Amino acid sequence: MTSNDTSVSRRNLLKAAGGAAASASVAGYVDTGSAEDAQQQGGGTLTYARGNDSGTLDPQNTTSGEDVKVTNQIYDRLIEFKPGESSLVAGLATEWNLQGQKATVTMREGVTFHNGNECTVDDFIATYRRFTDSNYEYYPGDEYVSSYGPFTLGNWISGIQKNGDYEMTIQLEQRYAPFLRNLAMFASSVLSEQAIQERGTDLSTNPMGTGPFVFENWDQGNQRIRLSANQNYWGEGPNVSEVVFTAIGRNTTRAQTLVSGGADIIDGLGAQSAQIVDQSQNAELLEKQGINIGYLAFNMARVEAFRDKRVRQAISYAINTEAIVNTIFRGIAVPASQPIPSNVFGYNEELDPYPHDPQRAQQLLNEAGYGDGFTFELATFQNPRAYNPSPIQAAQTVKSNLNEVGITVNINQQPFNPFLNYTSSGKHDACFLGWMTDNADPDNFYYALLHPGVSQDKVPNGQDWVSWDTEGFNTLDVAAWANTEFMDLTERAQKTYNQQERANLYKQAAQIAHDEAPWVFIDHAKELRGVGTNVQNFVVAPIGGPFLKQVSLSN
């Protein structure tokens, strides 16, 4: 299916601000569209079924892709991703430019929040401060804002100068290549200053943005969220009257619901459920190469054995990741050898996945002094994710593989939202996790997931890990890994605007991550969606989606 978003053809692109995942981050852009071009048409209720309910509707209080599916309908960002691609297009900003340590932004005039207030620079400044500034009167607290705050905006912005209601200059702490892409991330969704002041943390259950859909209600008992069309939306669409998000935990049940007409779009498909959709006359299976990683992380701060890279390597050899991908995931993924997939620039083609080699694993365990084995807990989510559509089966395979080399694994399975809280507080020994890119830049994998977020001088001599109570620690680094050579490479790559130089630095970082094995690299998965035959203009989007404003329903 193709997108009906014709806005690009009527816009004047002066300079490309993205291109593909491999595009440069330093760019300028001008958009000549206006709110007068927007049209709403069509109607009906679009039902989107997924594997898990949301945990919050505040984009500053989540790291969960399930939450983002809903908040992306309610909020806009200064810059957006083109549906189904990784190039940048205009959102609430019509012009932008990044040079050195300064970004200039011109915002679109005439855009209103769902309460009727106009969106201006003041709203973005309030958004930024609520997310990153503990001295801000309306800062909700360190335990409330997600770990996205620092690595999306907080670490990079030193100040914002307002140059009128619609223009601002953002001063950066350093040269930062991915900055424009960060402005397009869900965590950079622009909130209403008035809502921040009046509602505080109530935005978690009562969101209010400028997006194509308006929040109506959330039936948490039945795991159902209802949105209505924003009749005053500044852009094109929406083309349905309502969107309902509903949660159906079992993959096959979700697929059968689609086939029977109880849902219009579904995600979180595994091999069996994908087959149900593919064989149906009432639905279509859509797929696209994903920009993601699925992995098993070792919490080095909690388990002493994991601090020895020979143990980590041994586990990587002992786990048959190829069997997990080919037998359990059955063709919807490929084995991984490094943190980024092959469609992101900086991918190191010289690296291969760890082969299944129990003898080598036992040899390394013997060398490390763990030849008789040890015991650890593997925390896993129960619900399907794109990067791990069958987590319980995968965990059982890990348990069986490691039992062969004397390691006992106790599986701790939890619903997704409690699981994220559990791992983000460092309570796990090891855990399954994964990542679906926020901005298609390698920094969004390397720095976001494997850099501890602290300066190198905070890493104790002789250690390649830090404790979870280290000031400024990045809780997305669930391995607590802190390899200073790796940190140096990723920090240098952030400051480099030459793309080839950046790519070379990331290839070196990939080699270190592969050899040091803070994770068992499992897979890069396809993005699969089941779509009813009544659905038009839906596009599979590995980044920035789902783009439901352009979807329409036929009778």
TrEMBL record:
Compositionally biased residues, Polar residues: 53-67
SUPFAM superfamilies in alphabetical order: Periplasmic binding protein-like II
Gene3D superfamilies with a match to the protein in the record: Dipeptide-binding Protein, Domain 1 (3.90.76.10), Dipeptide-binding Protein, Domain 3 (3.10.105.10), Periplasmic binding protein-like II (3.40.190.10)
UniProt-recorded Gene Ontology molecular function terms: peptide transmembrane transporter activity
Residues covered by region (Disordered): 35-67
UniProt keyword terms in alphabetical order: Signal, Transport
CDD domains, per the entry: PBP2_DppA_like
One GO process term, biological-process aspect: peptide transport
One cellular component term from this protein's GO annotations in UniProt: periplasmic space
Solute-binding protein family domain segment(s): 88-454
PANTHER family, alphabetized: OLIGOPEPTIDE-BINDING PROTEIN APPA (PTHR30290:SF9), PERIPLASMIC BINDING COMPONENT OF ABC TRANSPORTER (PTHR30290)
Family of this protein: Belongs to the bacterial solute-binding protein 5 family.
Protein name from the UniProt record: ABC transporter substrate-binding protein
